Amino acid sequence: MRLLIAQVRMAMPFDLPEANLCSGQCNGCSQKLLEYLDTELQDWEYRLKAGETPDFGDINRMARTSKKIYKVLQRNGLVEEKP
Question: Helix, strand, or coil here: 82?
Answer without folding.
Answer: coil
